Amino acid sequence: MSSSAFKALLCGLAISISGKALAAQASWPDTPVGRLAALATVQDLSVQLLSQDSATLTLEHWCADHKLAEPAKISAVRLRDVKTAPDEVRHQLNVSASDPLGYRHVLLKCGDLVLSEADNWYVPDRLTTDMNQTLDTTDTPFGKVVLPLHFQRHTVSSQLIWQPLPEHWEMGQAIPAGHSTALDIPQTLITNEAVLTKPDGTPISFVIENYKAALLSFPPPAIAR
Fold first, then answer.
1. Average pLDDT value over all residues in the chain
2. This protein's superkingdom (predicted)?
């Protein structure tokens, strides 16, 4: 196993352990009302992510609003592994099999909390020289680097990975009875895929984002207790 792959494995294990531990520490109760509050919160987060062009700025606002860290500033930790772009990614970016792509595998953190893990393939020829230099040599979040391009975000797919309530609960499907324990919150809450484009529609980036349990590491609403 290469050193970069080993580092990625260790980071993955750390996310899994720390994310679940922090979510458990928040003590979202395993009750019908607690499950409903958790679902509403995750859906609210999903709406915010889908309605804004910059996921980085959305996470920064979420971190500040929910007092996850002080200061509420998003930082990127870049993992130095490489993933070949699937054919669908090249299709979304409108590039040929021979066109060079940049790649970043990053963790977006607020304080010590990992809020998101993302794979990002981008087209260097459609960015400025300074932007490519920053992306190659720093851990600055992609969204902040390309902000001067006034990019737009177009969602390809979005999935709520965690459903604290059973399917069709609103139609009378039985909701699990309450327990004295905290909710078992999985490592990943939401997965989004999106294309970032310039205002003229030229695609510059394709991202696959996994939003983590640490986003719920704040006290649940009083009604959920």
1. 87
2. Bacteria
Q: Evaluate whether the domain defined by 3-168+179-224 bears CATH number 3.40.50.300.
A: no
**Alpha-carbon distance 175 to 165, whole Å?**
7
Q: Are 189 and 43 in contact (CB under 8 A)?
A: no
Q: What is the pLDDT of residues 45-58, one digit of tens each?
A: 999 999 998 899 99
User: For residue range 176-216, what is the model confidence (pLDDT) as tens digits?
Assistant: 777 778 899 999 999 999 999 999 999 999 999 999 999 99
Confidence (pTM): 0.82
Structure tokens at 3: 């050193």
The mean pLDDT values, 10 residues at a time, for the chain of 225 residues are 45 45 64 91 96 92 96 91 93 96 96 96 98 94 93 96 84 71 93 97 98 96 73
For residue 60, which of 71, 50, 47 has the smallest C-alpha distance?
Answer: 71
Residues 72, 1: Cα–Cα separation, whole Å: 36
Distance of alpha carbon 108 from alpha carbon 47, whole angstroms: 19
Q: Domains of the chain: which residue ranges?
A: 3-168+179-224
Given a contact cutoff of 8 angstroms between Cβ atoms, the answer to whether 154 and 181 are in contact is no
Cα-based torsion angle of the residue sequence 142, 77, 102, 191 in order, rounded to the nearest 10 degrees? -70
Q: Output the CA–CA distances (angstroms, integers) from residue 6 to 9, 13, 184, in the order listed.
A: 5, 11, 28
